[in-house]
Amino acid sequence: MPATLVTRVRDRPRVRVEDLTVLLLTHPGGPVALQALDSLRLQDRRPDRVVVTGLASDDTEIADARQHPLIAEDGVTLLARDPASSSDDVSLWRVIEDARADLDVGPGHWLWILHDDSVPEPDALDNLIEATRRSSGVGIVGPKLVRADDPRRLVSVGHRITRGGRLLDTDVARELDQGQHDHRVDVIGVPMPGMLIRTDVLDEVGGLDKAFDDDTEGLDLSWRSHLRGHRVVVATDAVVRQGENGY
User: Exposed, middle or buried: residue 135 (CB in 10 Å: 0-12, 13-18, 19+)?
Assistant: First the structure.
């Protein structure tokens, strides 16, 4: 990271996680929303609201979700995005932009992006938040992603690239998780599944770039956040089991 950028990052104050929204990205035929709500209720730190994409507000699954203990008993707000705005032929940037437009939030708000086949460990969110407290200037935090069908195997521990711009993540995805990458903190980028991002950072960089897709959105968003002076870090103690739909 250039010295000038490091200086800008260090000058930035710590921003507390005052308010947090989970953006749950669904797809036709995917896991039901109740499974995701189950994993969110197990979190040490509960979100303030959950935005579900791909299911209409009058869908029977949404009706069931409103009866879920996370919503009915714990008081977490549930919002449903119309599937017309989040179908398979609509880009991820549009889904996130539409969902972001629904939120009337102030400073200290963060967005946690999960796919319908993302299963965070119970302490995942708490550890992501702790990573924002350890140092100033953090705008994006990513978890350690492991395979849903074999949690011993890594999917991603943040993005790394060569000087020529080639991704170095393919080797990591073949490895058993033995803590060999747990020393990583600052990274060039993190994938979208499990990403925790400050809403003001997302707004500052202009959201996702329409030109990027095929799982490159997270790297591009992270890179542009770096250029704005925000740190991108990976919290390797925050583990999310990730299926094939989200990576």
Answer: middle
Q: What is the DSSP letter of 103?
A: -
How far, in Å, CA of 83 to CA of 55, rounded?
5
Structure tokens at 35: 């499974």
51-76 pLDDT per residue, tens? 998 777 788 888 899 999 999 999 99
pTM: 0.87
Whether 36 contacts 194, CB under 8 Å: no
Q: How far apart are CA 129 and CA 115, in angstroms?
A: 19
Q: Are 146 and 56 in contact (CB under 8 A)?
A: no
SS3 128: helix
**Residue 37 near residue 127, CB atoms below 8 Å:** no
Cα R_g (the chain), whole angstroms: 17
Rounded-to-integer distance, Cα 203 and Cα 94, Å: 14
Supply φ then ψ for residue 63, to 5 degrees. -60, -40
Q: How far are the Cα atoms of 52, 185, 191, 216 from residue 167, in angstroms, in the given order? A: 31, 17, 12, 10
Helix or strand (DSSP H, E) at 146: strand 138-147
Type and span of the H or E element at 143 = strand 138-147
pLDDT band per the 50, 70, 90 thresholds, residue 165: low
- CB neighbours of 7 closer than 8 A, spacing ≥ 6? none
Instruction: Name the burial class of residue 3, with classes exposed (0-12), middle (13-18) and buried (19+) by CB atoms within 10 angstroms of its CB.
Output: exposed
